[in-house]
Amino acid sequence: QVHLVESGGGLVQAGGSLRLSCAASGGTIRTYVMGWFRQAPGKEREFLAAISWSGGSTKYVDSVKGRFTTSRENAKNTVYLQMNSLKPEDTAVYYCAGDPSGFMSTMNYIYWGQGTQVTVSS
To answer: Is the pLDDT of residue 106 over 90?
Structure first.
């Protein structure tokens, strides 16, 4: 059973940056597609980004494209989300998730972290 733990959240001013990490234990995620999601208060969970098992392919939702970058280090069983030019509307709980299918199009995320809070002040 893969266990995911996010870290790196916090309070940052608008225009600032944060780097989230998602560390996996209990199994390897090296063959998984890994995704990032967020949920703001009163809103539904939103897909943000995904990275293929090799790291060679990524995709982003338009609202974060050009500002957020996801990467991975399979040797460390860890995935990252670098967030730049943060805006107050980026305030949310951020989650990483794992899709064991290995296919970017499947979106079959069955392993989830507990989330980390990101707050962007204006």
So the answer is: no
